[in-house]
């Protein structure tokens, strides 16, 4: 029996200051998030499949993807 799985997680990295949010319409604190997709085999072996960075509003989570 082979046990495998996959998932997606987001990790907050750092606050980047206050910026105007297009969804809220006000100046809000924004943060940088690392979002990654992973897979695992038997919960022992795992690999990250995709890494992306997101700048998002701390209140409404509206944001945009950025390059490294």
Search tags:
68 residues; mainly beta; four-stranded antiparallel sheet; 0% helix; elongated
Helix content bin: under 10%
Choose one word for the global shape.
elongated
Order of helices and strands: EEEE
Mean pLDDT, to the nearest integer, reads: 88
How many domains?
1
Count of distinct strands:
4
Strand content: over 45%
Number of separate helices:
0
The separation of the N and C termini measures 39 Å
Identify low-pLDDT runs: none
Calculate Rg over CA atoms. 16 Å
Largest sheet features = 4 strands, antiparallel
Question: How are the strands ordered across the major sheet?
Answer: 1-2-3-4
Structural class: mainly beta
Structure overview:
It is a single chain. The protein is built from no helices and four strands. The chain has one domain. The N and C termini lie far apart (39 Å). It has 68 residues and is mainly β. A hairpin with a 3-residue loop joins strand 2 and strand 3 (45-57). It has strands at 4-20, 27-41, 45-57, 63-66. A four-stranded antiparallel β-sheet has the order 1-2-3-4, with no helix packed on it. The mean pLDDT is 88. Helix content is 0%, strand content 72%.
List the helices and strands and how they pair.
Blueprint: E1 4-20, E2 27-41, E3 45-57, E4 63-66
Antiparallel strand pairs: 1-2, 2-3, 3-4
């Amino acid at each position: 029996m082979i046990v495998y799985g996959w998932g997606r997680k987001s990790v907050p990295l750092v606050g980047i200051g206050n910026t105007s949010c297009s969804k809220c319409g006000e100046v809000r604190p924004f943060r940088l998030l690392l979002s990654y997709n992973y897979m695992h085999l038997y919960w022992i072996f795992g690999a990250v499949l995709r890494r992306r960075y997101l700048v998002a509003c701390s209140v409404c989570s509206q944001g945009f993807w950025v390059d490294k």
